[in-house]
Design a protein that fits this description.
The complex is a heterodimer of chains A (396) and B (234).
Chain A: H1 4-27, H2 74-90, H3 112-119, H4 121-132, H5 139-151, H6 155-164, H7 170-180, H8 188-194, H9 203-218, H10 224-241, H11 249-260, H12 264-273, H13 279-296, H14 302-318, H15 327-332, E1 343-344, H16 348-362, H17 369-377, H18 384-390
Helix pairs in contact in A: 2-3, 2-4, 3-4, 3-5, 3-18, 4-5, 5-7, 6-7, 7-9, 9-11, 10-11, 11-12, 12-13, 12-14, 13-16, 14-16
Chain B: H1 6-21, E1 43-54, H2 69-83, E2 88-94, E3 98-100, E4 110-116, E5 119-122, H3 124-133, E6 139-143, E7 147-150, E8 160-163, E9 169-171, H4 177-187, H5 215-233
Helix pairs in contact in B: 2-4
The chains are: A mainly alpha (396), B alpha/beta (234).
Chain lengths: 396, 234
């Protein structure tokens, strides 16, 4: 019986491991049914042809520190989230009970800050358009909240930015234009063209010009001839100055072509697939076109969006960067992945893939269960309120 | 001659070749590579310093540095000294100057970032600078005089910025070796990490980053550096 202790030890180890596995299995949240709000049809998931990705990020674990004060009124929650966001951004002091500040703001539209704004749009407008917008120390946070509200096409937010467009400050006008781009109302086109500066005296004028051209090109209420004249004028100016496309005229021309196309779905699909010498622009354009397709209900664009996702996954794999998709894993290891002025990009493919996958669902296309779990881990699959309840921030 | 002695010789030849290939002549400077005796597999990356100035010489803005041989060697030693921890070294040469139109500047400073909805995005002018002027044969380090970030909260200071995992960094004239090393870290695939003791996370009392790097960061950066070398050779 010389081997008995060894056998007993092995048996004990098996029991312990089995128990541990069972415990982990019990703790693991079950895959949730996909219920993104605006999804039309929900056909059976197509088999994924994507390159093998890292394991999807897990759902929030019960062991994660829960935010305080789940029963606080929405205005208090919004202010707290805004102040945390500002502290992250300025590397300022955080409230002592905030152990996972990166939950409040990531470079994805899925931090608690964005979720709270989307869940409580009227309260968010009241808080950020008054107490924050007028404070130079807090105005950036206000613009982030109001930008989120503009994406929801929130009425009072339109009125605020519509009034801001008339001021003389080019920086404020540019901020207004970016928000107003979400509202394609008949009177807007001429007002935007009127804000295209005649002379470019400094970088603020140049930024306003680029934004005005891109926004004007993206809405239908613009006089095409007037827009083309301005695009041509600044195209020539950029060439004379030695930096072709310095004023983003190429991109404006591409977007205008889509808005004017007889077959918008085909034009959008072409834009989603388009590759130029700027990969960064290609990703931005693909996301813009995919989200425009969602708003226009052009379900046929879903196939092109899937192709773009596949292409970006291949690119990441070739560059040995599939790990970029693991946003939450990086955060657990200490990388905050928060908005930063100190560096740009790096996870652009991963960010674009997230937004494109959400667009596929919203276009009625299919995602694999693995892709859905990944989106869910990024809080991009279900309604903001569901995620906020799950996080313990608001009551069910 | 011991094998290790060939490394500086090879680096010298590489830099000379690069200066010919890129069309960005080194103008007589080729500082010696910094080496480290404990590096079995050193990686040496070429860096082209690109002076940025306004197109109209009468306009304010742009770099005021002279980029003498001594200055370039200082930049090289500053970056290599930090990255020696990962056995990554840099050879710094002077590339072509870049002239920017008035629409690139604001009160003599070069805006490099905008607060843009949910994220901070590079100023489009900066993006166009990288797209139109980057040399494909080296990491491009632009010296721009004063840089500024638009739309940031008051008190936010910015001495430089860079593309993550892509070629292009831009700094102001007062950039330290550690700051250049930090920006190179971004090009080499490292994100800001919030660790106050780390090259990619902290700032000292003068606003310059500390110089610590982890093994994991070294692994990422060395992998990216090797891919750069492959791309530069094409």
């Amino acid at each position: 019986m010389k081997g008995s202790p060894r056998i007993l030890g092995a048996g004990l180890a098996v029991l312990l491991l089995g128990g541990l596995a069972a415990r982990l299995w019990i703790r693991s949240p079950e895959p949730r049914p996909s219920a993104p709000a605006p999804v039309a049809a929900n056909p059976p998931p197509a088999p994924s042809t994507a390159p093998r990705e890292p394991a999807p990020p897990p759902h929030p674990s019960p062991r994660d520190p829960r935010p305080a004060a789940p029963s606080a009124p929405p205005r208090e929650l919004l202010k707290r989230a805004g102040d945390i966001l500002r502290a992250i951004f300025t590397r300022g002091a955080l409230p002592p009970d905030v152990q996972r500040p990166h939950d409040y703001a990531t470079n994805l539209p899925a931090g608690y800050f964005q979720l709270l704004v989307r869940a409580f749009p009227d309260e968010a407008f009241e808080v950020f358009s008054t107490e924050y917008l007028g404070d130079p120390e807090k105005a950036t946070v206000a613009y982030w909240a109001l930008g989120e509200l503009a994406r929801l096409r929130h009425g009072p937010t339109f009125d605020l930015f519509n009034a801001q467009l008339d001021g003389g400050d080019p920086v404020r006008a540019r901020q207004a234009l970016k928000a107003l781009a979400n509202y394609d109302v008949p009177q807007l086109g001429p007002r935007i063209l009127a804000r295209v500066p005649e002379e470019i005296e400094d970088a603020d004028d140049a930024d306003l010009l680029r934004t005005a051209l891109l926004v004007a090109a993206s809405i239908s209420s613009v006089d095409p001839a007037a827009l083309d004249e301005r695009i041509g004028r600044y195209d020539r100016k950029a060439r004379e100055e030695g930096i072709p496309d310095f004023y983003d005229t190429d991109e404006a021309r591409r977007r205008a072509a889509v808005v004017r196309a007889a077959d918008p779905a085909a034009a959008l699909a072409e834009l989603v697939r388009l590759d130029t010498r700027s990969h960064r622009d290609d990703l931005d354009r693909a996301v813009w076109a995919a989200e425009r397709a969602v708003r226009g209900g052009h379900a046929a664009v879903a196939a092109a969006v899937r192709e773009r996702i596949q292409k970006e996954l291949e690119r990441l794999r070739a560059d040995d960067r599939l790990g970029d998709l693991d946003f939450l894993g990086r955060q657990r290891q200490g990388s905050p992945d928060v908005p930063s002025a100190g560096a740009f990009g790096g996870y652009e493919e991963a960010r674009a893939i997230a937004l494109l996958r959400r667009a596929v669902l919203n276009l009625g296309g299919a995602l694999s269960d693995e892709e859905k779990r990944w989106l869910d881990g990024l809080r991009l699959l279900r309604s903001p309120r569901e995620y906020l309840v799950e996080a313990g921030l608001i009551a069910p | 001659m011991p094998r290790s002695a060939w490394i500086p010789v090879g680096s010298f030849a590489l830099a000379l070749l690069l200066s010919q290939l890129t069309g960005t002549p080194s103008r007589g400077l080729l500082a010696r590579q910094a080496t480290h005796p404990s590096c079995p597999d050193p990686i040496t990356l070429p860096v082209c310093v690109r002076p940025v100035r306004p197109k109209n010489k009468d306009d304010r803005g742009g770099t005021r540095m002279d980029f003498s041989a001594e200055t370039l060697k200082g930049i090289q030693d500053g970056m290599s000294g930090v990255w020696a921890r990962c056995c990554v070294f840099f050879i710094v040469t002077l590339g072509d100057a870049v002239e920017l139109p008035p629409g690139a500047y604001k009160k003599g400073k070069l805006p490099v970032a905008n607060s843009d909805g949910q994220t901070i995005t590079p100023n489009r002018g900066l993006t166009k600078l990288f797209e139109n002027h980057n040399s494909p044969k080296c990491l491009n380090l632009y010296y721009a005089g004063d840089v500024v970030a638009g739309g940031l909260p008051a008190g936010q200071d910015l001495k430089g910025t860079a593309l993550n995992n892509d070629n292009g960094m831009i700094v102001d004239d007062n950039a330290s070796g550690a700051l250049n090393a930090h920006e190179a870290g971004h090009n080499l695939g490292l994100e800001d990490n919030g660790d106050p003791s780390n090259l990619m996370g902290g700032k000292d009392t003068n606003g310059h980053p500390p110089t610590a790097l982890t093994d994991a960061q070294c692994a990422i950066a060395r992998g990216r550096a090797k891919r750069y070398l492959q791309a530069f050779a094409q």
